[in-house]
Write a structure and sequence with these properties.
Layout lengths: L6 E7 L4 H17 L3 E7 L3 H4 L5 E4 L11 E3 L1 H5 L3 H18 L1
Parallel strand pairs: 1-2, 1-3, 3-4
Helix pairs in contact: 1-4
């Protein structure tokens, strides 16, 4: 069996503390469900562009409109619970695609 490389994930919120922690926990659960070995980093929204250089994907709890060098997805639904099933599905698809290429 081929050893999988780790997927490096950045989860960002306004302060880099509160909702990013909730979102990071949900993303970790999603990674565990689909068998992805992940390293999850957290940051605030103003640090995204700088930190995106060193990760494979960025998840945000707020809207982020800057162009990033890696895929990104807003995961506000993981915090609010509104539309959570759909965003979990999108996260699984995106993470699976990224894991195939790392």
């Amino acid at each position: 069996m081929k050893a999988k490389k780790q997927v490096v994930i950045l989860v960002a919120c306004g302060s880099g503390i509160a909702t990013s922690t909730l979102a990071a926990d949900a993303i970790k659960d999603i990674c565990d469900e689909i068998g992805i070995d992940a390293v999850i980093k957290k940051s605030n929204m103003s640090e995204i562009l700088t930190k995106a250089q060193d990760v494979d994907v960025v998840f945000t709890t707020n809207k982020y409109s800057e162009t990033l060098p890696v895929p990104s997805l807003s995961v506000t639904s993981l915090i609010t619970g509104i539309g959570e099933d759909e965003i979990r599905k999108k996260c699984k698809e995106l993470l699976s695609k990224i894991a195939e290429n790392v």
